């Protein structure tokens, strides 16, 4: 196949204006784009379509197209063949962790309303004191539950990223966010059903028990990550030939009807990419702040940081107040409004799941964060200039929630699962999760003091300015990973 000459560098004003126009069309506009090199393609129509869906183009350095990372030029066209049922079904079990997490959020919201209802208000302090012993005893159990729960939920994207075919990796990882939102919606529905029932909160939490059992049984059936097995063998934790055979069997299970020869080729490519790792050398914590991992850390932690500091906890905190101003007041109204919000989040997350592997990560981020910015400035206008126009606040709230679920919601967790090198992915993901929770706590605890100091309108304007900064961060820093294998993503950083 004849090679195509690389695109010329933009040197005129017309080319710069064209790039700016492409940016507003939400097509990957990065002016610092590296040169593109074509990989080998198959000759048949089926193989051409297959390679296109998996990404024909691979990023390399501008002057290193033929020498650096030869893996990018020699990846076989059919290396990512898979059976749809075998590729999708196993990942539903890790994603159930997100469903349980979301249900816990939704059920807690309903339980809070139930505990504040008139049914509970007559409970005496004497009756409350009778459960103190149970609280003391169950504290350690609840701590263990919370720790294991968070480990299972946040390990799911890492496992899916390491085992999923590159063509549908974005969809499968985004399913975790979809299941979180679905769980929240189910929790809101359970809250609506039991909000007026005495001790109804107990039934809300008990309803999730079957899901826990299904997830536990399903996780026992899942094979180990082939990349993780090979990494352990290279680091001296096992016999390499035996581990390679085991990794091949695991990948065959995850690919279904894919040819064993193609699976073996993919295993060889993974081993070639891991060959730079020194044997029997453990990754140190300091390495995540060096080299390529530092760039991955900036991308991942930057996304989850902006995910929170653009006001997501605060906007949801004000959701009840906004809907009350629009005429929704009682406890039953609050739960019904929560159901409507959950339904909107579910629909928009479903859209993101369906299009993320076709449109790419950057267009969804740029488009979604642009909508978030508009929504934040609308909320600021409502609290400063348009206090009598409650519909403006409702529209802004719905716009914010919808755009968040198109962008930061699923894409943030997807990107941090993809960008870290395999050897340091676990620790990098752990740091990103820590940054996410720390940012959430910062916004949550700083919101009320800042609101008293500068006012609600000015505070939402500040969030809008931060959203503009996050848009610049995405535009200049965040790469496109659509259709690339994890090894190709690491090579492109």
Automatic annotation (TrEMBL):
Q: How does it sit in the membrane?
A: Multi-pass membrane protein
Which subcellular locations apply to this protein? Membrane
In this chain the Major facilitator superfamily (MFS) profile domain maps to: 47-482
Biological process annotations from GO: D-glucose transmembrane transport
* A Pfam entry, by short name: Sugar_tr
Q: Which InterPro entries match?
A: MFS_dom, MFS_sugar_transport-like, MFS_Sugar_Transporter, MFS_trans_sf, Sugar/inositol_transpt, Sugar_transporter_CS
Q: What protein does this entry describe?
A: D-xylose-proton symporter-like 1
Provenance organism:
Zea mays
Give the organism's phylogenetic lineage: Eukaryota, Viridiplantae, Streptophyta, Embryophyta, Tracheophyta
